[in-house]
Amino acid sequence: MKILLANDDGYRAPGLRQLKDALAGVAPLTVVAPDRNRSGASNSLTLDMPLRVQRAEEDVWYVINGTPTDCVHLAITGLFDEDFDMVVSGVNDGANLGDDVLYSGTVAAAIEGRFLGLPTMAVSMVPGEGRVRHFETGAKVARILVDRLLSAPLHQSTILNVNVPDVPFEDIKGFEATRLGYRHRAEPVVKARDPRGRKIYWVGMAGPGQDAGPGTDFHAVANGHVSVTPLQVDLTRHGAIEGLRKWLMESA
Ligand code: MN
Q: Mean pLDDT per segment of 10 residues, for the chain of length 252 residues?
């Protein structure tokens, strides 16, 4: 049993350090992380420039000038002689609730590990006001779920998307199996000028939860629970195939 750790906040991120400390002793750990913050990278691969792997200060740390998906992709397709059994990604500095998962590099790293034969997991902190304070809570949650997976495996192609309220671990009210909710439309783009007077833009903040009722990830976290959502990669809207078939026939 070997566990690969990754993130999208970059190898210096405190959440990744906490994750590694919390999982020490469960299994041999290898960390492969981007050289800088690549939050929002989604499932992107770097195809237009070479990737370089640097070793950080410890034997187990590998740093890549690429995306979270590059990191896991390289790690499981030939960077190492050994195979991994599980990917744990995080602990992310920020929520990955609802439609966030489409943009998330944290979730993408877990998705990239889905061929490994064991469930993979993305763990994210959901801050209240201000910055995340309790990465150690997310790391401890990851440890509990990894221990549980090892003693009671889930279906192998499941990707667990875990969101953790930013509170001390003692204040967590429980674990809840959830579905993804979705957000209102994002805040408007932020317009500004650079020092030379040229227009620049910042992508605005994600919108608040819209579909956020009981059963959703938003609801679980808002009520002090750890939200655990099983994800799958099949984006096909199966229920629409039949109607589409008829529509195509009638259009022809
Ligand atoms: Mn991030």
A: 96 97 95 97 96 85 96 94 93 96 97 86 95 97 96 86 98 98 90 96 88 94 97 94 95 75
Ligand 1 centroid – CA 163 distance (Å): 13
- The tally of domains found in the chain comes to 1
> Which residue is it, tokens 């903040």?
205
In a domain, residue 162? The reply is: yes
**pTM for the complete prediction?**
0.94
Whether 188 is covered by a domain: the verdict is no
In a domain, 231, yes or no: yes
Q: What is the Cα 41 distance to its own chain's centre? A: 11
Structural domain contains residue 205: no
Helix (H/G/I), strand (E/B), else coil: 179: strand
Q: How far is CA 245 from CA 236, 237, 252, in A?
A: 14, 13, 11
- C-alpha dist (Å) from residue 127 to 97, 236, 244: 12, 32, 42
The distance in angstroms from the start CA to the end CA of the chain is 54
> What's the gap in Å between 23 CA and the centre of ligand 1?
20
Alpha-carbon distance 49 to 32, whole Å? 18
Distance in Å, CA 92 to ligand 1 centroid: 5
Residue 179 sits in a domain whose CATH number is 3.40.1210.10
Domain of 38?
A: 3-183+210-251
